[in-house]
From TrEMBL:
Domain Calcineurin-like phosphoesterase stretches: 56-239
One GO CC term, this protein: membrane
Pfam family of the protein (one): Metallophos
Taxonomic lineage from the root: Bacteria, Bacillati, Actinomycetota, Actinomycetes, Mycobacteriales
Region (Disordered): 304-325
Source taxon at top rank: Bacteria
Molecular function terms from GO: UDP-2,3-diacylglucosamine hydrolase activity
Organism (species): Dietzia timorensis
A single GO BP: lipid A biosynthetic process
Gene3D superfamilies linked: 3.60.21.10
Name by which UniProt lists this protein: Uncharacterized protein YpbG
Length: 325
């Protein structure tokens, strides 16, 4: 009778390769099925208002990359009214389909009852296309889409609800008694920015001066800082989207990886908030070590008088995510 032979034990190298493949496969499933739908709110207090001013709660959303039928994302956006924001800022990349404008409007419906302002990103103007992932680390050419999206319809729908299009505009509004100056540029990532249209000192007479840009390109942040803005809001980076436990691999723009999401100081006087965004390209439906997020920025009065008053070290003021969902 023939004796069956036991399969040979894998070598240490083979075992390590197998474990690596298993870990990668687990990460892929986790990032595709769970992490990219694991929405959170990042809340930060920014003591940048003049003493005696009422606090202002700004909800910053970005990079929805909406497709029709995305119910979990829609439910999360609806839940954000629980944060009691005074004002909403949307820094673009709302669309991932030419049929997505109704889906965006349904998702934003409760927030559209609040004052708001927006700028657009490249994924409001042009449909997403598959890209070589190596192009994000400088290897291979980046393809760009030329298939137009219905951004005019989206702009009309948002402005009909009272949100202000800040693209190449400078305007002011008073919310909760806080006098806000807002200015914005078109997406610098596609070199559509014309800062000259809003250039000039932000000036006194406002409690806070806010600059909007989809992509946080240094040339735009430098210009906002030089003109005396207090806060710049941007998206675009997706927080790195496919990150390692040690952090982002790329920012997909001119800022360094330490600023890929969250609050950082820029230049002389500017605070920068980069949103990790709420979506992803339909061709890269994955996030790892980078939850999709909305930001609640609670602007509060400075502790002491004058713009030169030191601002608290902001990363340490970042709070645990709120339980939303
Ligand atoms: Fe985006």
């Amino acid at each position: 009778m023939a004796r069956s032979r036991r399969p040979a034990e894998p070598t240490t190298a083979q075992a390590l390769v197998q474990a690596g493949i298993a870990a990668a496969a687990t990460g892929l499933v986790y990032g595709t099925m769970y992490e990219r739908n694991n929405y959170r709110v990042r809340q930060v207090e920014l003591p940048i208002l003049p003493p005696g001013t009422s606090p202002l709660r700004i909800l910053h959303i970005s990079d929805l990359h909406m497709l029709p039928g995305q119910r979990v994302k829609t439910a999360f956006l609806h839940s954000l009214t629980r944060l009691r924001p005074d004002f909403v800022v949307d820094t673009g990349d709302n669309l991932s389909s030419d049929r997505a404008v109704p889906a965006v409007m349904r998702a934003l419906e409760p927030l559209l009852r609040l004052p708001g302002a927006f700028v657009f990103g490249s994924n409001d103007y042009y449909a997403p296309i598959p890209k070589n992932p190596l192009s994000y680390v400088g290897l291979g050419k980046k393809r760009t889409s030329e298939t137009p999206l219905p951004w005019r319809d989206l702009r009309a729908a948002l402005t009909e609800h009272g949100w202000e299009d800040a693209t190449h505009r400078k305007f002011h509004m008073t919310v909760n008694g806080v006098r806000i100056l807002i200015a914005g540029v078109d997406d610098p990532h596609m070199e559509a920015d014309r800062y000259s249209t809003i250039a000039g000192p932000a000036g006194p007479g406002f409690d806070v001066r806010i600059g909007l840009t989809h992509s946080p390109e240094p040339r735009i942040l430098d210009a906002f800082d030089a003109d005396g803005y207090d806060l710049a809001l941007a998206g675009h980076t997706h927080g790195g989207q496919v990150c390692l436990p040690t952090g982002a691999i790329v920012t997909n723009c001119g800022i360094d990886r330490s600023r890929v999401k969250g609050i950082s100081a820029w230049g002389r006087n500017l605070m920068l908030n980069v949103s990790a965004g709420l979506g992803n390209s339909p061709f890269v439906p994955i996030r790892t070590f980078c939850q999709p997020e909305a930001s609640l920025l609670v602007l509060t009065p400075q502790k002491s008088k004058g713009k030169e008053a030191p601002v608290a070290p902001l990363p340490s003021t970042e709070r645990e995510p709120l339980a939303v969902g």
